[in-house]
Write a structure and sequence with these properties.
FAD/NAD(P)-binding domain, protoporphyrinogen ix oxidase, domain 3, Polyamine Oxidase, Chain A, domain 2, 7-stranded mixed sheet, 18 helices, disordered C terminus
């Protein structure tokens, strides 16, 4: 039997691509090497607590992603952030400072020095960049807002969102919207003021009663028996009519293939088909990440936990890059009278933590949180998730690498790549990219390679 499309990888990207193709009437199959599909979007409930092993929110500022979950019937049951999310916290030199979520919060807080706040005010008067030279996030924000803002706000943000380093991440790759604002409006401040009210990142961060894992669960239910788990793809070969997949469960034939796997896996499968794409995928690093989930009685924690959590400047004596106050973010994340906190450690800042024992890692996280949040006593519950490969790093050159990967089908008719290493690491970005990929495949199968290539070039321009 020959399928129209085989999707390799059953994470959110792969499942969403497959579901979108199925909805267009294509015969599609998903091959996932793990015994359970869903990738790193894992939500686990135990003893009244709910732990997110991977992503924790759905950003509703991505229109294509919102439309997709609406089509799945998930928009009506989505929960917005809880009413007690009132501040954003940042840790610098071991001290936690709360900043109001109001747009003028940083100007009213003493987290930044008077000179640092004054430098922010001058952003609107600074000239736009006149060259095409690619910049890091740190260089861009230092130029626009001042060095202190880049060091104490943006670098912690890069560590929290990407588990990365703002001195290495590309502004065009990681925060393309900010770079575009400068070019279109001459100023980030003017760009934000002209944006629609409520469209700023973080305004609408949704989840569900069962957590982010609800999304792959529903996608999997839609696909039904089209999802095949416990199958590893060993080799991918081009044939006269499409592709032949050599798997741990035998050989399969298909007209088109989608690689919705981690970049290093994509690099291996592309090696004999597209050396340029294989090289691009192989250059995308994904350092290990550790998620420490802790539950406490509310009376053990003196801090009000009145925010999303906190982000941290780099500190060689501390390992937590950031933490989330899970039970504040959404209802039902801890039993009545209890709170839950997730701490994140590792990534580019501390890749060596992958070698630290579970006992020592959890213990150090507990000590840091106790000092910051006024926690007394041991947690009533603790869990650790260790990701050997964490978030892909959008370092300098990322936009060029992504362009190579997204045009794979132009060099190899019927071969497509999608995933969180292309247009954003969030679940919403993955859904948006998956929909675009499905559209490209649909055109390819219905109209042939010449029309598809022309349309794909229009789409990516």
């Amino acid at each position: 039997m020959t399928h129209d499309v085989i999707v390799i990888g059953g994470g959110v990207s792969g499942l969403a691509t497959a579901q979108a193709l199925m909805a267009r009437g294509h015969d599609v199959a998903v091959l996932e090497r793990q015994v359970i599909a869903g990738g790193n979007a894992i939500s686990e409930r135990f003893d009244g607590f709910l732990m997110e092993h991977g992503p924790t929110t759905f950003n509703a500022s991505v229109p294509e992603a919102v439309a997709h979950i609406a089509g799945l019937g998930l928009l009506e049951s989505a929960s917005d952030l809880g009413p007690n999310v009132k501040r954003r916290y940042l840790r610098d030199q071991g001290r936690l400072t709360g900043v109001s979520a109001h747009p003028l919060g940083f100007f009213r807080s003493n987290y930044l020095s008077p000179i640092g706040r004054l430098s922010m005010l001058f952003e609107g008067f600074r000239p736009r960049k006149k060259t095409d030279a690619e910049e890091t996030i740190h260089a861009f924000t230092s130029r626009r807002f001042g060095r202190e803002f880049a060091d104490k706000v943006i670098d912690p943000m890069a560590a929290g969102l990407f588990m990365g380093d703002s001195h290495q991440l590309s502004i065009n790759g990681a925060f393309a919207r900010l770079a575009l604002m400068e070019q279109e409006h001459g100023s980030i401040t003017r760009g934000i003021l002209k944006a629609k009210r409520g469209s700023e990142p973080g305004r609408h961060l949704y989840s569900w009663q069962g957590g982010i894992g609800t999304i792959p669960q529903v996608l999997g239910q839609c696909l039904g028996t089209r999802v095949h788990t416990g199958i590893t793809v060993l080799k991918l070969c081009k044939t006269a009519n499409g592709f032949e997949l050599h798997t741990s469960a035998g050989i399969r034939q298909t007209r088109a293939v989608v690689l919705a796997v981690q970049p290093h896996v994509a690099a291996g499968l592309l090696e004999n088909l597209d050396s340029e794409a294989a090289s691009a995928a192989g250059e995308i690093a994904a350092p290990p990440v550790n998620v420490v989930y802790l539950g406490y009685r509310r009376d053990q924690v003196t801090h009000p936990l009145d925010g999303l959590g906190f982000l941290s400047t780099k500190d060689r004596n501390r390992i937590i890059s950031g933490a989330q106050f899970c039970s504040t973010m959404y209802a039902g994340r801890a039993p009545d009278g209890f709170v839950s906190i997730s701490a994140y450690a590792g990534g580019v800042r501390n890749p060596e933590l992958a070698q630290m024992s579970e006992v020592d890692l959890v213990a150090q996280v507990q000590v840091e949180l106790a000092d910051l949040l006024g926690i007394k006593g041991a947690p009533v519950l603790q869990r650790l998730r260790r990701w050997a490969l964490g978030l892909p790093q959008y370092t300098l050159g990322h936009t060029a690498r992504a362009a190579i990967l997204q045009t794979t089908s132009q060099r190899n008719s019927g071969l497509f790549v999608t995933g969180n290493f292309l247009q954003g690491v969030s679940v919403a970005n993955c859904l948006s990219t998956a929909v675009q990929t499905a559209n490209d495949i649909d055109r390819s199968l219905n109209h042939g390679p010449e029309i598809r290539c022309f349309q794909h070039q229009q789409h990516t321009a």
